[in-house]
């Protein structure tokens, strides 16, 4: 008896669904289509954030081939190529996107980013000039700062860096870039301060730690800064400090730092050993 009731319920459900489809003139099909659009949107976001960059490139290349008129898929391909460090290919894609009637200021900034990564500074500057000054984003000012640095327009660079820092909650990398700019100008005190600030935002940023050691070494301060480091990082920083001391002409100090780097490293530190052997020979 229970089986008969269950069968009747299933039959009623099927009839009801059929009736809904008939009365709704395809509403059921539209719902399925909407679900597919949501699923695709989620997949696109995954590909642009957590997926392997090269896998994302393949995904969006396939999508663009199948639907070449979809601007969102072209953008996805351009962003994925940038994530995969394939700047030249990304530049080609973004150059097409910015010519589209529906191109946005975001697109022009992405295009400038691809050009900066290729070292096409003049073209990148021209791309950013096409963005109105009222369009203020972290990425726009980060790129403006890098370009101003390249042109040795220091006041503009400092202004752009400062603006970029104020437009993000994670300014570690841009502070590191700003610090390196100061380092290249010979402003070692300010460079060290900026590197230290970058590390407070991102303690894992080894580039900033290494740059901080360079800034100290340039002033012949051969002590490591008080920052959070692993044993391997400490050995690497001692190696950097040793090479900096040697470059400054402080040979014995440099040799002592290289010895300490070799002793500190938990494994065989080939780079430091090679540097010490070269120095001794």
TrEMBL record:
> Which N-terminal residues, if any, form the signal peptide?
1-18
Entry's Pfam families? TPR_16 (PF13432)
Q: Which domain of life is it from?
A: Bacteria
* Each TPR repeat, start to end: 172-205
Name the source organism.
Answer: Litoreibacter albidus
Alphabetic keyword roster: Signal, TPR repeat
The protein depicted here goes by the name TPR repeat-containing protein
């Amino acid at each position: 008896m229970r089986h008969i009731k269950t069968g009747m319920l299933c039959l009623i459900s099927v009839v009801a669904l059929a009736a809904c489809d008939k009365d709704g003139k395809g509403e059921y099909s539209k719902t399925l289509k909407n679900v597919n659009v949501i699923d695709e949107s989620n997949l696109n976001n995954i590909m642009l954030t957590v997926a392997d960059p090269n896998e994302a490139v393949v995904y969006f290349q396939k999508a663009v081939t199948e639907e070449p008129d979809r601007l969102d898929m072209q953008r996805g391909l351009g962003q994925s190529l940038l994530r995969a460090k394939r700047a030249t290919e990304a530049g080609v894609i973004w150059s097409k996107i910015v010519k589209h009637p529906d191109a946005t200021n975001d697109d022009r900034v992405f295009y400038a980013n691809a050009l900066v990564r290729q070292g096409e500074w003049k073209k990148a500057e021209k791309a950013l000039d096409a963005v109105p000054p009222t369009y203020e984003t972290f990425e726009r000012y980060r790129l403006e700062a890098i370009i101003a640095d390249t042109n040795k327009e220091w006041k503009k660079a400092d202004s752009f860096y400062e603006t970029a820092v104020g437009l993000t909650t994670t300014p570690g990398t841009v502070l590191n870039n700003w610090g390196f700019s100061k380092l290249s100008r010979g402003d070692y005190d300010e460079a060290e301060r900026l590197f230290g600030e970058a590390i407070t935002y991102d303690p894992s940023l080894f580039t900033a730690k290494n740059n901080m050691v360079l800034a100290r070494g340039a002033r012949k301060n051969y002590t490591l800064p008080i920052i959070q480091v692993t044993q391997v990082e400490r050995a690497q920083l001692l190696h950097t400090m040793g090479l900096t001391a040697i470059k400054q002409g402080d040979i014995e100090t440099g040799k002592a730092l290289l010895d300490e780097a070799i002793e500190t490293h938990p494994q065989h530190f080939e780079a430091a050993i090679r540097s010490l052997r070269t120095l001794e020979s």
